[in-house]
Fold this sequence. Notes:
Blueprint lengths: L3 H4 L19 E5 L9 H5 L5 E2 L8 E2 L9 H5 L5 E7 L2 E8 L10 E5 L5 E12 L7 E7 L10 E4 L2
Antiparallel strand pairs: 1-4, 2-3, 4-5, 5-8, 6-7, 6-9, 7-8
Bound molecules: iron/sulfur cluster (SF4) (2 copies).
Amino acid sequence: MSDYLKTGYLKNEDVEFPKSDSLRGRMVAxxxxxxxxxxxxxxxxxxxxxxxxxxxxxxxxxxFSRCIGCGNCVAVxxxxxxxxxxxxxxxxxxxxxxxxxPLPEKGSEVFLLNRKGERTxxxxxxGIRKTDKSRNSVxxxxxxxxxxxxxxxxxxxxxx
Length: 160
Ligand code: SF4
Ligand code: SF4
């Protein structure tokens, strides 16, 4: 595990990631939750029990083979620490929790941001899903050509 407490962000190698071959035509949840805090809405929201935790203070782990990519865990996570990744028609697809304004428009081009907030490329918004009414966040799904970015795209920026 890299020194994320000093840097403030994880590196690719810190994150358990599904094999690329298993992502073709499907979306799978990836967790980047590393803090041992009393929290478990992600696990509670999963309809197929794909998220396990060693007690309420444990960090979640996703059983990639079991996950059906429903996005419930992304929608409920208060720490914005759950994401969906997949491959669709050869393109990389990532769904991220998004709490900024303005909201992107479906079909629009956006910047892809890594964990440091750096622009790493551009993608096209293919879906926007509202989360629970009590939260002002949405889940933005973005597609992009460079599949290498699947491991690192964790936010988007609207192009003005
Ligand atoms: S995306 Fe759905 S099925 Fe997959 S881990 Fe999250 S809640 Fe469970
Ligand atoms: S809901 Fe989010 S913050 Fe809470 S344990 Fe799950 S991934 Fe971590």
